[in-house]
Design goal:
Layout: E1 2-5, E2 10-13, H1 20-27, H2 35-47, H3 51-71, E3 77-81, H4 91-98, E4 103-108, H5 111-121, E5 127-131, H6 137-141, H7 144-149, E6 157-161, H8 173-183, E7 189-195, H9 202-214, H10 223-228, E8 234-235, E9 241-242, H11 258-261, E10 263-269
Parallel strand pairs: 3-4, 3-6, 4-5, 6-7
Antiparallel strand pairs: 1-2, 7-10, 8-10, 9-10
The structure holds S-adenosylmethionine (SAM).
Length: 271
């Protein structure tokens, strides 16, 4: 996949390979995807029809967490890793609503994100988008454009929202989180959401099979594996929970459904 942008438009070149960013765009009813991405999305939806609802829960918790951290905890810097294609209410819009001076850097491996992000952000001095691979966290931490915007001697919110399941076990996602945790200042926050392997849901394991075979990534990990990402940090209440249950602003009437429980997440502070 490659992308080219001019001042007025973004041209995406299709090489017939699905990407996580574009499959997620299908789930969010966006328009930046191809037939090959729709095929993966449809195969996933066949196994778990709630996936569009789940994607919406993932965006909704992002809005609640970023608002909370910017408005209540005084966080002024956000490093959004695996940020995805721009969609409704992006991190910079939510953070800068609470604090117009908040700085946001979007990082994604997929060049389509950079192409769309540049077009969207050309007038925003406090926001950048870069292409980098989280599997090499030092590349991200040392990137000149990241350092032009983020002061790592001060607290930062590191966002790993819906991305760590796109790293394989041998790529050591927990080790990557540790590298990031050790690099940031005390008082920093980690905001992480993930697919969750549920013992009472064969669909959660079946979805992993579909994603690994058709997309090449999509590990659905156990609650214990996901808890390890937060090791050495202090979880904010209510802890690691199904996404709609993290400080909901509307009542969740039925918390037993797969749509509510398949993705879990939390926010932790490095002390
Ligand atoms: N964070 C956004 C959200 O939750 O709404 C988007 C999540 S999307 C499901 C996952 C994103 O992670 C995709 O845009 C994909 O390109 C990106 N990604 C996957 N592997 C990556 C890697 N190794 N480095 C950086 N980004 C990666």
């Amino acid at each position: 996949m490659s992308a080219e942008s001019t001042e007025s438009e973004v041209v995406i070149l299709d090489d017939g390979v699905p990407t996580a960013a574009r499959v997620y765009d299908v789930m969010l009813d966006g328009k930046d995807h191809y037939e090959i991405d729709r095929q993966v999305a449809n195969a996933s939806l066949e196994v778990m029809p709630e996936l569009k609802e789940i994607a919406a829960h993932n965006r909704a918790i992002l809005h609640r967490v970023v608002t909370h951290l910017a408005a209540e905890e005084g966080v002024t810097q956000f490093l959004d890793l695996g940020s995805g294609l721009p969609t409704a209410r992006n991190t910079h819009e939510v953070a800068q609503e609470a604090n117009p001076d908040a700085k946001v850097v979007y990082v994604d491996i997929d060049p389509i994100v950079l192409a769309h992000g540049r077009a969207l952000l050309q007038d925003n001095d406090n926001t950048r988008v870069i292409t980098a691979d989280l599997r090499n966290p030092r590349e991200v931490l040392d990137h000149p454009e990241v350092n032009a915007m983020i002061d790592f001697s001060k607290p930062v919110c590191v966002m790993l929202v819906g991305i760590l399941h796109h790293l394989l076990d041998e790529e050591d996602p927990a080790g990557i989180v540790r590298t990031l945790r050790d690099a940031v200042a005390p008082g920093s926050y980690f905001f992480i959401t993930n697919f969750t392997r549920l013992s009472d849901s064969p669909e959660s394991a079946q979805l992993e099979e579909v994603l690994l075979s058709q997309l090449g990534t999509g590990r659905v990990r156990t609650p214990a594996e996901l808890a390890a990402y937060f090791e050495g940090m202090e979880l904010l209440p209510p802890g690691i929970v199904p996404l709609p249950l993290w400080r909901p602003d509307t009542i969740v009437t039925d918390a037993t459904t797969i749509g509510v429980r398949f993705m879990t997440g939390g926010v932790a502070r490095k002390n």
